[in-house]
Amino acid sequence: MDYSDLKHAVTLDNDTLYQIMDDFGNDVWNYAFFLTGSRDHADDISQEVFIKAYQGIHTYRGEASLKTWLITITRNTVHSYRRSRFFRQSLGSKLFSIDDEKTAESSALSSHSRIAPSAESIVMEQHYEDSIWEIIMSLSVKSREVLILALKYEMKIHEIAKILHISEGTVKSRLSRAKEKVQKELGRRAE
């Protein structure tokens, strides 16, 4: 759906809101999860993001894509959420592996190839993918956030810089360090 007309919108009708939620709901939820490490917090934050988008559509100027606008709202909501007492009390220090949907997607992609992969190769691939996400989730929030925006959401350096309110050079250096840490840890685990 083309959302270019939304930059002039004063309000959203329910059908448009549902379409936005359908188109971008997974992106918002996944980003909230990557920042918080909690499925419950990601659920709460996602709901709040779409409420804010519904109530604040008049603030969308169309300077960035609607997805980038929603990701920015998600980031700001996570930061507000982190300051709340509830979040600080309920946040665990556990590392979470990639969710089952990602593993299912990976298996579905593999099943479309001409030669069906062996059960062993599927398990190894899932284990490798889980290890990568575990490493990513163990990075500092700053490193993880830049890496996720670049790799998962395929945002450009200038978009990331705008969302995070940092310079493009800072984005590049954080991204480089984050990739290096992930590769180093993967190498260590492979030994």
From TrEMBL:
Residue ranges annotated for the RNA polymerase sigma factor 70 region 4 type domain, each copy included: 131-181
Keywords tagged on the record: Sigma factor, Transcription, Transcription regulation
SUPFAM superfamilies registered for this protein in UniProt: Sigma2 domain of RNA polymerase sigma factors, Sigma3 and sigma4 domains of RNA polymerase sigma factors
Database matches in InterPro entries: RNA_pol_sigma-70-like, RNA_pol_sigma-70_dom, RNA_pol_sigma70_r2, RNA_pol_sigma70_r4_t2, RNA_pol_sigma_r2, RNA_pol_sigma_r3/r4-like, WH-like_DNA-bd_sf
UniProt domain RNA polymerase sigma-70 region: residue ranges: 23-85
NCBIfam families: sigma70-ECF (TIGR02937)
Family: Belongs to the sigma-70 factor family. ECF subfamily.
Protein name stated in the entry: RNA polymerase sigma factor
